[in-house]
Design goal:
The protein has 499 residues and is α+β, with helices and mostly antiparallel strands. Helices cover 44% and strands 18% of the residues. The strands form three sheets. A nine-stranded mixed β-sheet has the order 1-5-6-12-11-10-7-9-8. Strands 14-13-15-16-17 form a five-stranded mixed β-sheet, with helices on both faces. Strand 16 and strand 17 form a beta hairpin.
Length: 499
């Protein structure tokens, strides 16, 4: 018979791994529910037309599609569009606003496989729909931070911005929503290059993934410059397009080259006048502690339509302090790269994860539900990369009890089988995880097997009211009543859980 392996970009999770994932899942659910979010579930596949409604048909290349009943479907690549579809169908009409919804589910994207990047992955997130109050933005961010606190994760960075600042300034500069989105997408590209290169220049040695990243960014600059016939000090010529031995120097100059190339693109396409380019890029470079960066931001937006958006961001920060959700920093160049955001945006990164350091991202999207045929509904939300959170949980030095059972009931001989079943039933009724030893082995072999599977305690049936309770770690055993064994196990399990 042939042997089959997992499909490319997918993984099997063994019992020990699932014990960790289940623990992380429980923390997600309990945290979301403490914040008043209600659990929903949408189908794992949707009509392709829904998922491509905003991105266009070109999204097909990154999705898994199939046809059934003469309708084209696709495995969902993310969760926000299905939730918007759910709201647009008015299935929540009997639930009063605001809608506070959470989900945890599998998503699928056809993409290049690399460390930390798979084609099947899990998302966990929330959507808060029906409120435009800055407090709802703070509530959403606070719930994300609380998940990490609940998992004991401390090494992360919370970055918060407001895409509304750029939208207001660009609107004042004469750009419509679509043109604003193009410019904001460029700002996001500059910000991503700046952050990634800052990480690269701190490295002693660049890895293959780093070299490929630099090569791809240099190739992008060449394509854009060739398209607009760029000439200037940041020109990228084919003869020096990329050399691995020059990668470190490219890591240092890529941010400036990218910014200057995109400025030239704006001018060539008539997207943005130079006076607005200077202001927008100066704002995009702002990051740091709220006090210093906020003061400088206020000076840059003074007298523009963006004063209100900056005030909105300041209020969100005030609420985050009430939630004790710090530390956090202003990163005004953060735009998330999605054109549906309208206001606050945020991301959470962890340096422990290397290049794939982002674990959470979200923001305000007040127009999106309407674009899916629903009501004009302000909304804010986020999604965690569940798998990355699990990895971060482990890299933070945490672990969970992966033992499959709390105790094993041995069956020393055929005559004891009925008593063993009675004991297992009694203990399971008290909420204990209990396994029966059913393979044809002698008592010592059964105890060795129990210890090998992580079962610390082994009960050997005695008379109608007693048993021998063995501790495989301590190597001890004593005859006790079933009541005593039951209470001892309950206390031991409770202490292990609390510890």
């Amino acid at each position: 018979m042939p042997k089959f392996s997992t499909a490319r970009g997918t993984r099997d999770f063994l019992p020990g791994e699932m014990a960790v994932r289940s623990h992380v899942d429980r923390v997600f659910r309990s945290t979301f529910e403490r914040f008043g979010f209600q659990h929903i579930q949408t189908p794992m596949f949707e009509e392709f037309a829904l998922l491509a409604a905003r991105a266009g048909d070109e999204i097909r290349e990154s999705m898994f599609t199939f046809i059934s009943d003469r309708i084209e479907y696709a495995l969902r690549p993310e969760m926000t569009a299905p939730v918007c579809r759910l709201v647009a169908t008015e299935k929540l009409a009997d639930i009063p606003l605001p809608y506070k919804l959470y989900y945890i589910g599998q998503c699928f994207q056809y993409r290049r496989i690399q460390p930390g990047v798979y084609r099947e992955f899990r998302q966990a997130g929330v959507e808060f729909m029906g409120s435009s109050d800055p407090l709802s933005d703070a509530e959403v961010i606070a719930s994300a931070v609380s998940v990490l606190k609940g998992l004991g994760i401390t090494e992360y960075t919370l970055k918060v911005g407001n895409i509304g600042i750029f939208r207001d300034i660009l609107a004042q500069g004469g750009l419509d929503f679509d043109a604003q989105s193009r410019v904001i997408g460029h700002i996001d590209r500059i910000q991503r290059v700046r952050e990634r290169c800052a990480d690269l220049v701190r490295k002693d040695t660049l890895e293959r993934e780093d070299l490929e990243y630099i090569k791809s960014r240099v190739a992008y600059l060449f394509r854009v410059q060739d398209e607009i016939c760029y000439e200037g000090e940041c020109e990228v010529l084919p003869s020096r397009d990329y050399r691995e031995d020059a990668a470190e120097s490219w890591a240092e100059k890529l941010p400036d080259h990218t910014e200057q190339t995109i400025r030239a693109l704006w001018s060539a396409q008539g997207l943005l006048a130079e006076e607005w380019q200077d202001r927008v890029l100066r704002i995009a470079r702002l990051r740091g502690a709220v006090e210093e960066a906020g003061t400088e931001a206020a000076e840059l937006v003074s007298g523009t339509a963006a004063e209100g958006a900056l005030g909105n961001l300041r209020e969100i920060f005030q609420w985050l302090n009430k939630y004790q959700s710090g530390p956090f920093e202003i990163v005004l160049g953060l735009t998330r790269g999605f054109d549906f955001y309208t206001g606050m945006v945020f991301e959470i990164d962890s340096p422990l994860l290397g290049a794939q350091k982002q674990i959470c991202g979200g923001g305000r999207y007040d127009r999106l539900v309407r674009e899916f045929g629903g009501p004009d509904l302000p909304a804010t939300g986020f999604a965690f990369g569940f798998d990355r959170v699990v990895e971060l949980f482990l890299k933070s030095g945490h672990d969970v009890d992966t033992a499959p059972v709390d105790a094993t009931v041995a069956v020393p001989d055929a005559m004891a089988k009925e008593r063993a079943v009675e004991i297992a039933v009694r203990l399971r009724a008290r909420g204990l995880r209990v396994s029966l030893s059913l393979l044809p082995m002698d008592l010592q072999q059964q105890m060795d097997q129990a210890a090998g599977t992580g079962s610390r305690y082994v009960l050997v049936p005695g008379d109608e009211s007693s048993c021998t309770l063995h501790d495989t770690i301590e190597g001890t055993g004593k005859v006790v009543s079933l009541k005593e064994a039951e209470e001892y196990l309950l206390q031991a399990v409770s202490a292990s859980t609390m510890g």
